[in-house]
């Protein structure tokens, strides 16, 4: 019953628009009191410290810093120019560029919010100048931003690896093909809409222009490959790869002469803020997880589901629907840390690969940044495009159809996720 009380308090506060971090703190304190530890509330801080005392989490602030440095050094312009030369000539050219640029930038930042903030201004401005509706420009930018959290290096996948005790290297490799599939599905959808609405296309770039933009952006685009290569060859651990990413970002800033004191200070300040919020959320979420485990919630839920659902495919379908609803009201990080430990006994019981489970869990939760009331990508694009929230939300809703199609394919065809990690590391 204590576990249900904690979830009830958490959900009630979230629905009342109480900040997620505050909701988690209050819910964890309520759980400790309900368990009878009224005179030992210090157990909350103890569990919180235990929750973040992991080498795997050391990489989170470093990857955040690397993304902030690359963004601050204005390397997004090089990515946009290269993407424009590659796919700009397709119908709906700049919208297609928007999607491809999100994939490329996702390989640098690993975060959807960073994608919206960094690329949004450039992309929306360019699309509006070419005659695209403002709401459509904002919607395609928001929708394509969810590619970043599953394309390596991915901060949500790092957190999932910590929670599920899964291999970071396998997860990073597992995210590549789903990210490419999502990009392909979005580009097909944009093409269909562009033909119907007669959106423009850009002039086809010559081979020389493509080559020059590739060379110009080569060092930036090389970042994901260096990080993955260092981890797969054993040159670095996951934590050390974050440091390597920072060193590489600093090197690029110096090389292109875009690194200065203001960029450094801004990057450090934003990293300190985001890392503190993330680690506090992880710590308090770990306390909630401990309460759930103490109250035997994972075991009871596993027994119930395994006793009433015979097919893992039925379970996956129900689980996807639950995640979409959950993502509408909860922050993805908090949901990952609280939900995943509860679901792991069930996942293992059905024989679902934890890496595969992590990919479609993270991707489905990311849909929440495109749906009210949380919908953080919608709020960012509202500010960038100078549009009412309702207009951005209304224009983004149609993009959910191709995204859901991609999620279903990824969830029900495990090899889309597992082909590359099994090829490189072998079957677990």
Mean pLDDT: 79
Task: State the end-to-end distance.
Answer: 37 Å
Q: Count of DSSP helices?
A: 23
Order of helices and strands: HHHHHHHHHHHHHHHHHHHHHHH
- Please give the oligomerization state of what you see: single chain
Share in helix: over 70%
As for the number of domains, it is 1
How large, in whole angstroms, is the Cα Rg?
A: 21 Å
Shape: globular
Biggest β-sheet strands, sense, barrel: none
> Are there runs of 5+ residues with pLDDT below 50, and where?
none
**Proportion of strand residues:** under 5%
Strand tally, please?
A: 0
Query: What class do helices, strands and sheet pairing give?
Result: mainly alpha
Question: Could you please describe the fold and organization of this structure?
Answer:
The longest helix has 34 residues, at 261-294. The protein has helices spanning 2-15, 20-34, 42-52, 59-72, 76-87, 93-109, 112-129, 134-144, 155-164, 168-174, 176-197, 207-221, 223-232, 238-255, 261-294, 297-308, 312-329, 332-350, 354-366, 376-385, 389-396, 400-412, 415-425. The model has no long low-confidence stretch (mean pLDDT 79). It is an all-alpha fold and 428 residues long. The protein contains 23 helices and no strands. The chain is 78% helix and 0% strand. It has one domain (2-425).
């Amino acid at each position: 019953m204590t576990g249900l009380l904690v979830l009830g308090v958490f959900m009630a506060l979230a629905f009342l628009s109480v900040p997620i971090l505050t909701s988690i703190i209050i819910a964890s304190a309520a759980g400790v009191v309900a368990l009878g530890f009224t005179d030992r509330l210090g157990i909350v801080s103890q569990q919180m410290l235990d929750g973040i005392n992991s080498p795997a989490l050391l990489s989170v602030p470093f990857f955040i810093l690397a993304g902030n440095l690359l963004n601050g050094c204005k390397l997004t312009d090089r990515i946009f120019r290269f993407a424009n030369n590659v796919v700009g000539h397709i119908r709906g050219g700049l919208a297609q560029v928007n999607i491809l640029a999100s994939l490329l930038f996702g390989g640098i930042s690993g975060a959807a919010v960073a994608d919206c903030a960094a690329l949004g201004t450039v992309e929306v401005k360019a699309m509006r100048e070419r005659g695209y509706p403002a709401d459509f420009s904002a919607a395609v930018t928001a929708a394509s931003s969810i590619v970043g959290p599953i394309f390596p290096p991915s901060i949500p996948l790092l957190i999932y690896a910590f929670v599920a005790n899964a291999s970071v290297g396998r997860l990073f490799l597992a995210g590549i093909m789903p990210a490419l599939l999502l990009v392909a599905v979005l580009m097909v959808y944009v093409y269909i809409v562009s033909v119907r609405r007669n959106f423009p296309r850009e002039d086809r770039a010559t081979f020389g222009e493509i080559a020059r933009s590739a060379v110009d952006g080569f060092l930036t685009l090389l970042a994901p490959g260096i990080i993955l290569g260092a981890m797969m060859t054993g040159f670095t651990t996951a934590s050390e790869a974050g440091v390597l990413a920072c060193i590489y970002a600093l090197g690029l800033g110096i090389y292109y002469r875009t690194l200065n004191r203001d960029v450094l200070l801004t990057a450090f300040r934003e990293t300190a803020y985001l890392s503190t919020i993330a680690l506090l959320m992880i710590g308090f979420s770990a306390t909630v997880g401990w309460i759930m485990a103490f109250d035997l919630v994972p075991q009871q839920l596993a027994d119930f589901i395994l006793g009433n659902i015979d097919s893992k495919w039925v379970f996956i379908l129900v689980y996807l629907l639950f995640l979409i609803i959950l993502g509408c009201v909860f922050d993805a990080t908090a949901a990952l840390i609280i939900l995943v430990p509860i679901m792991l006994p069930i996942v293992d019981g059905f024989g679902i690969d934890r890496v595969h489970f992590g990919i479609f869990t993270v991707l489905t939760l990311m849909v929440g940044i495109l749906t009210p009331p949380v919908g953080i990508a919608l709020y960012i694009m509202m500010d960038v495009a100078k549009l009412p929230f309702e207009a951005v939300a209304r224009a983004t809703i149609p993009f959910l159809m191709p995204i859901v199609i991609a999620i279903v394919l990824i969830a029900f065809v495990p090899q889309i996720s597992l082909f590359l990690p099994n090829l490189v590391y072998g079957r677990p």
